[in-house]
Amino acid sequence: xxxxxxxxxxxxxxxxxxxxxxxxxxxxxxxxxxxxxxxxxxxxxxxxxxxxxxxxxxxxxxxxxxxxxxxxxxxxxxxxxxxxxxxxxxxxxxxxxxxxxxxxxxxxxxxxxxxxx
Length: 117
Prior knowledge:
Elements: H1 4-8, H2 11-33, E1 43-51, E2 54-57, E3 60-71, E4 77-78, E5 86-93, E6 99-104, H3 107-116
């Protein structure tokens, strides 16, 4: 029967644990540095109002297309019913004039998008 010290004292296990620790630390650094990639060709709207299936962007009222996606500030797809009543957004319009994608913006992303406008 193998003893505890023989199993965990082996050089192979020490190398494996060091490798796992290195991989975990690299993954943690990558998550911290990850930023959301927002599309450059989208349109910006400050204070867009949601009233499913419609979204008021500026003076226009646009309809959400079938299969449209709404991304929250963590880049997760949310249901239209869980969208806030009003938010700063980036959006894309399809060939039918309906909104196909919406990104809810953080305050920092909103400032950057407004500066590009």
